[in-house]
Each structure stands twice: as structure tokens, then as C-alpha cells.
Amino acid sequence: DMARAQETFDLIMKTLPDGTPTTVMPGLREGRPCQPIPASRSGLYKQATVDRDGRRIDEAFKELFYRSSPDQEKDTHEVVVCHANVIRYYVCKALQVPTEAWLRIGLPHCSYTVIEIKPSGLVSIRGMGDTHYLPPHLVTYS
User: Which InterPro entries does the entry link to (predicted)?
Assistant: First the structure.
């Protein structure tokens, strides 16, 4: 259920050095992380789906977003490839704003978002939904 994310991952890997370590995280699969406020045009999602997806997506968040250890001397960078619902939710969660706002954020396909976490715990969005590397006719939304 992540065919588009896999295609994007394959393209990104072509630009990275051979041997770049990768990890597949099932927790990043597309899903409905929580009920959005306001509700989507189609109404509220099935609560059982939201409960299941939300737990899975939250567990993956804990693996990806955390302060560095005090003795870390160099910056680290992680490239995470996943669908927009997960990215939008993670942006809200990382910024500690109500996660129910996730559906109010629009992201183009194949865009990238940069989340910076300082050793102090300060979280900043350094870019969101960026598609500057794509010709305008290839930028799409769903």
C-alpha cells in the first residue's frame, strides 16, 4: 500500500552513495492518524481505523523524532519517505500544535519537508511541501 512512496524512495536512492543504510518502517504506512478537526468532507473516519492507524503512526514517530544525546557532536540527517497524511500529522505533533489540524495542511506529491530538532528540544520547520526541484507541470495534489 506504499507503491508511490516506494517509487519515490527508489528515485532518491539513485542520488545517494552506494551503501547508504536504509530501514523499512511499516509504521509509516498511509493511514488516518486521528480524527481531523474540522471533519473531512466525507465526515468522520471509522474510529477503529483511527485507533489502529494512530497507534502505529505514533510508534513510528517515537522512533524518528527525539533530541540528540548531549554528547553528540555532529548533525545527523534522516530521510523519511512516506505519504502526506503521515507527514502532516508529524509536523503538527513535532511542533506540539493540536494534531487534529493535520488535514488542514496541503502537501504536493513528491514534496519534501525539513524538520529540525535542536539538542535543546526546540523544533522548527525549515521547509514544508517543497517541490522546487520539479518542473511546475509535474507538481500535483490529491
Answer: His_Pase_superF_clade-1, His_PPase_superfam, Mito_Ser/Thr_phosphatase
For 49, counting Cβ atoms within 10 Å of its Cβ (0-12 exposed, 13-18 middle, 19+ buried), the class is exposed
Work out the average pLDDT over 10-33. 94
Q: What's the mean pLDDT in 91-100?
A: 98
* pLDDT for residue 1: 58
Name 137's Cβ contacts closer than 8 Å, sequence gap at least 6: none
Which amino acid is present at 8?
T
Closest CA to 93 of 115, 126, 120, 77: 115
Average pLDDT, the chain: 94
Cell 513510528: give the residue.
60
Structural domains of the chain, count: 1
Domain holding 74, by residue range, is: 3-138
Beta strands in 10-122 (DSSP E): 112-117
Facing residues of 64 across strands?
none
